């Protein structure tokens, strides 16, 4: 039996993630939900160059959420759309659907909604769903404990059109106990997919830990990993650190948002 997936978002990232899901042997892309009505009725698979039908595209404008989730049940929803989309899929939880949210930045209101969803079903939330970034985070925590007096700065680089400060960089700052307004440095140029660097400055040497996503397929592979992992989990709210079993250093991340 395959793991059936419903995708929220089919933009820059969602479309690449959808391609990875279609290529995966264990997963099946049941449908894609997006805001606009532009590609409604088409198959994501066809738009992505496959020669079979998979992942019918619907618009949230034209569905009745209650009936939709009943008639189009999926094992897991993967969300690469926008923070408010949670309002469109919270009904799915009552049918046992699990949630992987990759939204990089939630406000307090939507984060509370996500937490509430975790009381009904298994939810994994990660502002950076690549497997590699978790190594950067854990390595940074270890280094901070070894060299507590080092100056630490976080640099995040993304494509020109990314508006928000990187949710990953804010998470790294929280994990290292740094003031997000002072120690997160953002660069927006060209088409950089996503690069995060933590710099440790000591008097006579500098240590840099860098993670770079070279292709958005990295997010697809991470999301698929998270979806498979979540299938074995009871209701609750989980992190990618838990999914990749990297919470060995000390505690698991506790959710926080900006005031
Ligand atoms: N956690 C991670 O590792 C990553 C997270 N992201 C996050 O994913 C999100 C999407 O990023 P992009 O693909 O670059 O954006 P984009 O603007 O290219 O695409 C957004 C897509 O979501 C759809 N959408 C927006 N609101 C919706 C709603 N309420 N319901 C259904 N569909 C809706 C739009 O129609 C569009 O298809 C952002 O929050 C981004 O930061 C992106 C890459 C990696
Ligand atoms: O918007 C993106 O694209 C990305 N957002 C995430 C973030 O804000 O940290 C992660 C990733 O690097 C890409």
From TrEMBL:
EC assignment: 1.17.1.8
SUPFAM superfamilies: Glyceraldehyde-3-phosphate dehydrogenase-like, C-terminal domain, NAD(P)-binding Rossmann-fold domains
Keyword terms: Amino-acid biosynthesis, Diaminopimelate biosynthesis, Lysine biosynthesis, NAD, NADP, Oxidoreductase
Top EC class of this enzyme: oxidoreductase
Name of the featured protein: 4-hydroxy-tetrahydrodipicolinate reductase
Domain Dihydrodipicolinate reductase C-terminal, first and last residues per copy: 132-242
GO function term, MF aspect, one: 4-hydroxy-tetrahydrodipicolinate reductase
Domain Dihydrodipicolinate reductase N-terminal: 4-128
PANTHER family: 4-HYDROXY-TETRAHYDRODIPICOLINATE REDUCTASE 1, CHLOROPLASTIC-RELATED, DIHYDRODIPICOLINATE REDUCTASE
Family statement: Belongs to the DapB family.
Reaction(s) this enzyme catalyzes, per UniProt: (S)-2,3,4,5-tetrahydrodipicolinate + NAD(+) + H2O = (2S,4S)-4-hydroxy-2,3,4,5-tetrahydrodipicolinate + NADH + H(+); (S)-2,3,4,5-tetrahydrodipicolinate + NADP(+) + H2O = (2S,4S)-4-hydroxy-2,3,4,5-tetrahydrodipicolinate + NADPH + H(+)
CC terms in the record's Gene Ontology section: cytosol
Classification via Gene3D superfamilies: Dihydrodipicolinate Reductase, domain 2, NAD(P)-binding Rossmann-like Domain
Pathway: Amino-acid biosynthesis; L-lysine biosynthesis via DAP pathway; (S)-tetrahydrodipicolinate from L-aspartate: step 4/4
An example Gene Ontology biological process: diaminopimelate biosynthetic process
């Amino acid at each position: 039996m395959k793991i059936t997936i419903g995708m929220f978002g089919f933009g820059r990232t969602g479309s690449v993630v959808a391609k990875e899901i279609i290529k995966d042997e264990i997963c099946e892309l049941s449908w894609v939900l997006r805001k606009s009505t532009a590609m409604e009725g088409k198959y994501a698979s066809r738009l992505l160059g496959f020669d079979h039908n998979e992942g019918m595209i619907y618009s949230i404008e034209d569905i009745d959420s209650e009936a939709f989730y009943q008639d189009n049940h999926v094992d897991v929803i993967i969300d690469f759309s926008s923070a408010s989309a949670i309002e469109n899929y919270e009904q799915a939880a009552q049918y046992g659907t699990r949630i992987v949210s990759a939204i990089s930045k939630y406000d307090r209101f939507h984060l509370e909604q996500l937490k509430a969803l975790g009381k009904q079903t298994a939810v994994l939330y990660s502002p950076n769903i690549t497997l590699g970034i978790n190594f950067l985070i854990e390595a940074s925590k270890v280094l901070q404990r070894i060299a507590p007096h080092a100056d630490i700065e976080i640099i995040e680089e993304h494509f020109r059109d990314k508006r928000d400060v990187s949710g990953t960089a804010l998470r790294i700052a929280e994990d290292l106990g740094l003031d997000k307004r002072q120690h997160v440095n953002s660069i927006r140029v060209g088409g950089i997919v996503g690069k995060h660097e933590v710099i440790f400055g000591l008097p006579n040497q500098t240590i840099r830990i860098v993670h770079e996503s070279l292709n958005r397929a990295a997010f697809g592979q991470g999301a698929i990993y998270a979806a498979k992992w979540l299938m074995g989990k009871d209701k609750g709210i989980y992190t990618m650190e838990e999914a990749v079993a990297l919470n060995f250093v000390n505690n698991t991340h506790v959710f926080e948002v900006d005031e």
